Amino acid sequence: MKKLPVLNINQFKNQEELTDFYSNDLNVHLKQNSKIVHKPHSHNFYLCVCFTEGNGTHEIDFDSYTISKGSVFFLRPGQMHRWHFTSLVNGFIFFHTQEFFQLNIINTNLNEFPFYLSLENTPKLQLDNYQLNKIGTIFQSINDEFNGQMFFKTEKIASLINLVYIDLSRLYSEKDSKTINVSSSYLNILRILEQKIELHFKTEKTVQFYANLLNITPKHLNRVVKSTIDKTTSEFITNRVLLEAKRLIVHSKNPLSHTAETLGFYDYAHFSKLFKSKIGITAIEFKTKHRL
């Protein structure tokens, strides 16, 4: 399989005392890293970017999103993406590791923010001009603090990140209200479920298997998943399998039958039928489309 670049936070121009956080003016960032940021790649860190001007498309895990003034994107570690701009863009971008957030923000988990809760949740939020002016000020403060040398620099940056995530979560939840009134216990079950699926999806695809791991009934697990992301547990599992299938189909030189076997389908016809029914085109058509 052709390996896609997985970018490490230390590859970017950083401050000596902050090796697990990075911030920049977006236009400057794109110019400084032009050789790597426009090609398909993933990261081993969390990324948040806010566009104050510009147009284009942002492809994330094979889904395309329109870029315009006020677009905010959130990426989790491991997600594949690439940019395509049709005009000059500007804004702010920051990265951080999970450890940076956990060490500096007490009693808050990144997965509690709705945009980081699940891969099923959209990675984009569109702000209007009023919202952009308010949120953009915090992004500017994060970038100013990163490039300054004031006392309590790390603590200030962490506080600002937490603040911008809180404000963005409120706006995100207004547009996508599924998780507003969901209990914390349900959200915790979903978080653990996604971790378990990530470990086992190539070999285990039944609801019963994951319910057993979580020590709950399949019926209750389905209730949790439906309440939090409005899908069945089976759909949740299948979507993760298909995402991996897409990655392997486009970035591997192996036969499609080998891709199917890698994902636990030893009957290629079964894999092919599933892919066509869920994606709408055959695996071969998908490969041709995205390689072009």
Count of individual helical segments: 13
CATH third-tier fold name of the largest domain: Jelly Rolls
| Regions with little confidence, pLDDT below 50 for 5+ residues | none
CATH superfamily of the largest domain: Regulatory protein AraC
Rg from alpha-carbon coordinates? 20 Å
Overall pLDDT, averaged?
89
Widest sheet: strand ordering: 2-9-4-7-10
Shape verdict: globular
Question: What is the CATH first-level class name of the largest domain?
Answer: Mainly Beta
What features would you describe in this structure?
The structure is a single chain. This protein has 292 residues and is of the alpha+beta class. The chain has 2 domains: 6-179, Regulatory protein AraC (Jelly Rolls, Sandwich); 184-291, Arc Repressor Mutant, subunit A (Orthogonal Bundle). It is 50% helix and 16% strand. It has helices spanning 26-32, 34-37, 98-104, 114-117, 129-147, 153-175, 184-200, 207-213, 218-229, 233-251, 256-262, 268-279, 283-291; strands at residues 6-7, 21-25, 42-43, 46-53, 56-60, 63-67, 71-75, 81-85, 90-96, 124-126. A 5-stranded antiparallel sheet has the order 2-9-4-7-10. The protein has a 3-stranded antiparallel sheet with strand order 6-5-8, with no helix packed on it. A hairpin with a 2-residue loop joins β5 (56-60) and β6 (63-67). α5 packs antiparallel against α6 (153-175), α7 crosses α9 and α10 packs across α13 (283-291). It is globular, with a radius of gyration of 20 Å. The two termini are 18 Å apart.
